[in-house]
Design a protein that fits this description.
The protein has 9 helices and no strands. The protein has 183 residues and is an all-alpha fold. It folds into 2 domains: 110 residues, no CATH class; 63 residues, no CATH class.
């Protein structure tokens, strides 16, 4: 039954992947295809991370809309339908983040104490560093065909590694001092 509740998240990832495919960002298409696999992990940080990513994705739709309206107007093409469709997709994507507030999904993605927010921070920090390295051309197409795709796959692998390492290093619950244990 949780699968049905997560359908909006999956549809949002598919729509965003199709958008990135249309503009030729194959690496981001790969990320949109892999991120829903995090849903198999029963960790609270996964829910928090995907909620934030869905809100960022809604912002990406708004940015796309902001860029396309002047182009349509400049070419003399109708733009109202564009506004309605992309606004609806942006609202759907943002609303998809709310499914993690449902009771059944809150139970599935249980809390691990203060570790949840640290894991989300590790995810976004390592992903930000990886995406930044890709944007500055560390794996450029000049290195050969498919080099950019390999670079994006490395980013995904490094983010996964960073999250797994942090998961092992961070304590599940904050430790209490010995003088507080007697109370």
């Amino acid at each position: 039954m949780n699968f049905v509740r997560l359908i909006p998240v999956l549809l949002s990832a598919i729509l965003l992947g199709a958008h990135f495919l249309r503009v030729g960002q194959v690496g981001l298409v790969l990320i949109c295809g892999v991120l829903p696999l995090l849903l198999f992990l029963k960790r609270r940080w996964v829910g928090i991370t995907l909620q934030l990513l869905l809100l960022v994705a809604a912002g990406a739709w708004v940015k796309t809309l902001w860029e396309l309206i002047p182009l349509r107007q400049m070419m003399g093409q109708p733009w109202l339908r564009l506004v309605l469709i992309i606004s609806a997709v942006a609202l759907f994507t943002a609303a998809s983040s709310l499914v993690f507030r449902l009771r059944a999904l809150r139970l599935r993605f249980r809390s691990e104490g203060s570790k949840d927010y640290w894991m989300t921070l590790v995810f976004f920090t390592s992903a930000g560093l990886g995406v930044g390295s890709q944007q500055f051309g560390i794996a450029d197409e000049n290195l050969g065909p498919g080099a950019a795709l390999v670079g994006w796959m490395l980013v995904l692998a490094l983010v996964t590694l960073a999250c797994n390492l942090a998961n092992g290093w961070l304590p599940a619950k904050p430790r209490r001092r010995e003088d507080e244990q007697g109370d």
